[in-house]
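> @MW can you paste both from yesterday?
MW: sure, first one:
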Amino acid sequence: MIGKILGKRYQVVEKIGDGGTAFVFKGMDNLLNRHVTIKVLRPEYVSDLDFVRRFRREAQAAASLSHPNIVSIYDVGEEDGIRYIVMEYIQGQSLKELIDDLGRLPVRMAVDYACQIAHALSKAHKHGIIHRDIKPHNILIGEDGRLKVTDFGIAQAVTASTVTYSDAFLGSVHYFSPEQASGGQTDEKSDIYSLGIVLFEMLTGKVPYSGDSPVSVALKHIQEPFPKPREINSQIPIAVERIIRKAAEKNPENRYISAREMSGELSNFLNGKENVATEQLFTPNLSQTKNLNSNKKRRLKPIHRAALVAALLMIALLIYGVLTLRAYWIVPDVEVPVVEGELLSQAASILADAGLAHRVSDQVVSDLVPAGYVISQSPAAGRVVKKGREIELVLSTGPDLVEVADVMGKMVREATLLLEGQGFAVEVLERHSEELSGTVIAQNPGRGHRISRGSTVTINVSIGGKPFPVRDLRGLNLEDAKKWLELFGLELRFVAEDDSDTFTAGQVIDQIPAAGELVQAGTLVDLTVSKGPGQPGLQRHEIQIPTNDIPVGEEVTVIVRDAAGERTEKFRSTGEQIVTFGLGSGEVEVRWQNNVEIRNFP
């Protein structure tokens, strides 16, 4: 596969992984000049036409997802029986590799990573896409620290075609929900369960259930109680343990309602907010009226009777007023919905539907949350408040954007230092160009673009023009030779003179580099020009050196010792014979690698 070009644009560069369903390669998009990840399905899946149709449908659906924490799918194709997916290339490592390196992750790092994964799941679930294979192996960490979840939609196609627990799926079974392990119906809450397992592993360095076979692990998910994370790592806060255990409830009804709700609790922990108990509404009891019994009957005077009626009327009006005001002031309770991770307009609509108002209390820079989306809310999601309560929202202004400097025409070292000084990572690609070797001839993004710190800027650096074979200049007069060199961008360094019985005065009799040797624009060339006959009677002999035993591309050194003295020429073997010349008689010595061959002439 290495070197193969798929879809007339994606060149396979190197193999970087080997999964249960696909081989993973690093590739180059020759059209857009960027690195990509190419996943090629294993042959056993390619031959299953039903799986292929399902796979293509799910991959195309996943390609519609656009989120900072989801690996983008660029293309899906088929060529010569090869089914492949072209995806965003992430320079970094998988979460599984990080856990293996560190053993346990720091608490805030693990919670932050889980929060990013939850944001990705919330986006996918909103579009009706369930991952079904959330595990550290499918989560990539970029050089900027941002997590990217990969294989959305692909796992769904695989699961539908794979109903047996084989060793190939042992890694996935460790993260299966009980309903997945029992072969039941799966939905968004299966992904939430798997995320709980991933957070457990990040904080403890191990998975909650292990066994000798996939079946034994699956049974433990169904039957055994979930282990307490704090018994393995006492540094885990109680609030975080509660989040893990709620996400990993065996009954889906007892888990988080949505990934968005789980991300809300994770965000609360990161922001130092504790979940508080439901607000209680205390309503004072009405005082009971005393029954006034008069044991003594007496006649009331008319004035007294009128006063009594007036008093009773006042009491009735007072009671009516109290009841009316009580009905007016007794406001119903509502539960605060999760709006973190939502666009402001959508968050306002969700709160309005719940009978709540909103206010933007702050706007802050965030590399994780896109501009205009809600970062946090107060009161937190799940709190019970009075209907009409104003919910304070903190919005993201997006990442800290920096304008990319113009490095066109600068030397590669200067350009790299300038861009790194702005906080960018720099990727250097070499290209043939007529520009001076070592200078920047292209950059992406270009000047004026504003991108976040930590992003990668790619610069193309000239390595000179494409090599070409120098022509045989012998026999040309010096002026014609100069014109040819100038035409092809070669530079004449110096001109020597020597006697020649073969070439007339002024003609080129020797050159360095030799004829046929590959050169680039700017290469220095030395010429030897004839002074005319020196020693009469010396005959010029053509020397032909076969290269059948010399590997193509090997450098060959030829030393000629003749009546004119000794001279050395260097050639690059092309498979064709090497041709030089000698004056009178003498010998020629041919060297390549550790081989030396001497022959006489004529």
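MW: second:
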Amino acid sequence: MFQMALAAALSATVIGSALGSDPVLQDGVLHFPEGLPIPRSMTPTEADFVRQHPLGGNRLATAPPVGPIRCASEYEPMAGILLAWEGGSSYTNIIRQMAVSITTIGQADVFIACDSSSEANTVQSTLNSYGADMNRVHTVVRNTDTVWIRDYGPRYIFEGDCRAIVDHIYNRPRPNDDDYSSYFKNTVGHAYYEHNLVHGGGNYHLNSTGVSAATELILNENQGMSQTQIVDIWRDYQNVETYIHDAFPTSVDSTQHIDMWMQIVGDTEIIISDWPQSAGSTQDQICDGAAVYYASLGWTVHRTPAFDSGWTHFTYTNMVLCNGLVLLPKYADISDTYDNQAFATVQAAMPERQVVQITCDDLAYSAGVMHCICMHLPAHVGGVNPTTCVRTPLGGSYEPGDTISVQWISDDDEFEVVNVDVQFSHNGGQTWDTVETATADDGLHYVVAPDVSTSNGLIRVLARDVDGNVGGDVSGEFEIVGTAVPGDVDGDGVVNVNDVLLIVSNWGPCDGLCPADLDGDGHVGVNDVLLVLGYYGG
């Protein structure tokens, strides 16, 4: 099921060995020595390994999100950028420059994967000495194999008002990388979903309204599925409609990833490569065709130059957007004229952002640039107030005494939801009774349906963070078919003096479920007495 088409990878193995280093195969296991600049493309040793060990193994997809779902775009507000401290100084010098700009100009946090506590200390001291905002630097001690976190890191969606992670099977045999998203979810406490596409995250771009794009590489990597099935998976898990573009020849770009030649910078705005030294080439035709396609949709299209030289793809579209910042590649091996052209185009396309150029030849030699070594963590939509997304109940009919399964996910700007309150409304949210106070934020609570008759019952889950801020979400409406006699406070089947006495003894504000509050206004008072008298003897 997870068989990957190796034709493209095999044709690129010579390129891969030229661009970077190869992992070591020992006792049937691939090893990635620390400091080794593994390329983004599949190496010869990895290609041999995949012949015997198809990607995916026994990993099973989870059920997709319940929704509502919106996939996060890169140009919207960001809370942080994920990085991995890998590849030796040729890579980490670039990572360091990125982290400094992200935490200062970009006003976002960086979450840097480190293989050990010692490496985390090195990261902290290095970034501090170069002027990063250390309040925004977070080290995540967890083994990774390579620097290319764009391809294996978490893809973020919003499920309701909560951030959630969508993961895939990494299209490289790099086990620590492939497992990173499932670990990172625990660092931030976000819901986690996994589909069964073999995929590299850099072969994907989207806007905030559900338009997405990939190259036909995704078809070659998942030959057991049709294009319709692949597009359906992204639709189910991310609520996007994906257009499949032609892929570059592997002799030009050994990864065939779309982020090497386009970047979406707005809901209807895109930057696409142009090939001034290779007019009419296959890659030039692909980019020109894409430019015509997006223009036909009414998008604004900007063009930046691109080149291939000596098995290296020099691109400017592989940039990083982060709030008020754009990190734009520049190259020592390319004329300043083209660096300046790219800068002018990008600044004109995004005048509200500060463009910072970083020399990226060492990454380009390894078949990627800055976008390839980072992943975006969108901002929390609730601000300082936590959010929940109530996943059940979404409807249905219950009888008194039935168990209602309440399921939810939560989110917070500081990733610190400490507990939740669960509330019930029998009147469509006009009033609320608290069923449970400060219960664990474990995503599941059972509520016993009370003996009321309602067609618009609701459950609300309110999350509370470490600072005491509260926010939450409501369920779908559901029905309860009650058996209670109107005005029967004590539930004995008749309305008599005992019910009047219960009204009097519960006089005042309600606390929790309150049978004496017959009119549902949150207070036991005169109106409730009048209701009992109106049904007296029934």
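> thanks! The two ends are 66 Å apart (CA to CA).
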